[in-house]
## 1
Amino acid sequence: MEFRAYKPVEAAVIQDLFVSVFSKSEGEQEGVLIGNLVDELVAGTGSQDLHGFVAVDGKKIVGAIFFSRLSFEQDVDVFILAPVAVHSDHQGMGIGQALINHGLQEMKKCGVRFVTTYGAPSFYTKVGFHPISQHMIAAPLELSQPEGWLGQSLADDPIETIPGKCKCVKALNNPVYW
Ligand SMILES: CC(C)(COP(=O)(O)OP(=O)(O)OC[C@H]1O[C@@H](n2cnc3c(N)ncnc32)[C@H](O)[C@@H]1OP(=O)(O)O)[C@@H](O)C(=O)NCCC(=O)NCCS
């Protein structure tokens, strides 16, 4: 299994992966929604604000993750991990955790100081995330499930609190995802 940065020419294949995985796990409507999110993320986000990574088995992309920038009043490199998908036939084999760990290492190399995510704590705590409060780090939009707001510091001098309001990239700036 190879873990590497995604290539823009792979965007359509990655979008299909998200549609198929989320249709199967959450229903067809969710599949279309997350597929659109991936399309908008890739097409509408500057390269400084988006990092994507894939897990490749042979020649087939079996997993994909994206990190996009969160902006605060102070200048600090913070990204959010979302969305994440592993092909339905390859789940439960450690690929999701290995891909996320690879992505986190690469983000750290790029100087990213903190990564948040919004999802199932029981899964994301396996890859270093812990629940964070909105007083410590604000979410960009109102959360329907505040217990899913998670984060981890990548810095050698860990930061746990970032004051002020938070803005996400345009693709994520839609209450439907939060
Ligand atoms: C969630 C997902 C990315 C995990 O990838 P994976 O390769 O299947 O996961 P791994 O094999 O690395 O890890 C498996 C562990 O994660 C747990 N896990 C998997 N999906 C989970 C979920 N949705 N919620 C909570 N725990 C989950 C498994 O129970 C397993 O735990 P165990 O090792 O204690 O038995 C993948 O299953 C997936 O794409 N699911 C559908 C899309 C999705 O729900 N994405 C967002 C998740 S918030």
## 2
Amino acid sequence: MSCDFIRPALPAVQRLSPYQPGKPEAELRRELGLAHIVKLASNENPLGCSPRATAAMQAALTDIARYPDGNGYALKHALASRFALSPDCITLGNGSNDVLELLGRAYLGPGRHAVFSEHAFAVYPLVVQAVGAEARVAPALATDSAMPYGHDLAAFHQRIDQDTRLVFIANPNNPTGTWLSSAQLEDFLAAVPPQTLVVIDEAYCEYAEKPDYASVAPWLSRWPNLVVLRTFSKAYGLAGLRVGYALSHPEVADILNRVRQPFNVNSLGLCAAEAALEDSEFLDVSCTVNRQGMAQLHAACERLGLRVLPSAANFLCIDLARPGVPIFERLLQHGVIVRPVAGYGLPNALRVTVGTEAENQHFITALTEVLAAA
Ligand SMILES: Cc1ncc(COP(=O)(O)O)c(C=O)c1O
């Protein structure tokens, strides 16, 4: 009996290409049997997570037979006090990825559209396409601009109209690392129709130390159509637990709450995130290691004559001036996993997460050898 389970699927879903995650370390170990592998492919924190988060999870293990608190009371209250907002302004998600999907399900659909940039985070087109909405893609800034491949807000404006439901802006952006200044975002928000939700995805904001960068979270009372996305997956080192959140107008949070799964954040994630939030020391050390590692990688790229894109995040997008995939594959042979970004429209680039000093050095040595042999 011949079966076809593709064509009965929703047409928009049939057209989707699945998200390609970074190659897991265990997969490379299985394939090549290498003893030492360095994974710099998914922008995770190389230091792990706060010991307070680990202790909180260990304590919570005794209660694992129970469902989590479906309203995330304690974490929401901790976040509310951190941002001086009411808990009604907070939506918790199974990673910020979950919140992106909730936004798509609640605000998009056939006949509706969203605007985002070329070379932006890969989940934006997935979220838009999955619900049959139209993706309007703003071309990125030119390669010779001050912010090469960065978001071009004038191009966003050309694609936004009274019917635009969502705008996605990653700041800093993944995979480029480029960022928008608060002055640019302020002018942008002032000119967006008031009913268009502007989602500023600040997944990497803890790392962003550029003088013109600032989180827009303090602007929530000023712009009711602003949605700020944050995650515990990056600087807080909890990627495996999947906890992210949105800060928004309470009515947006109310709508998202109607479409989320009842227990979308698990018990360990809830208590670990709450504990991690309090550990500013761990966050400071993580940012210092990132700053030093960024300098180490920059210096190596300069020595190798490679151009890097400006980055305010915990990764660097390196322009190899030749196809990135073959170099990625050769780096795997050296036990180094980075991220090819051809799927993001950057075929000559590789994205490298900033690791510990030793991990960065392993990558630099491998890249030097691979390029010399290429
Ligand atoms: C810009 C951006 N937004 C959101 C996410 C999703 O993160 P998570 O679902 O782990 O919170 C990522 C992950 O890489 C990202 O790079």
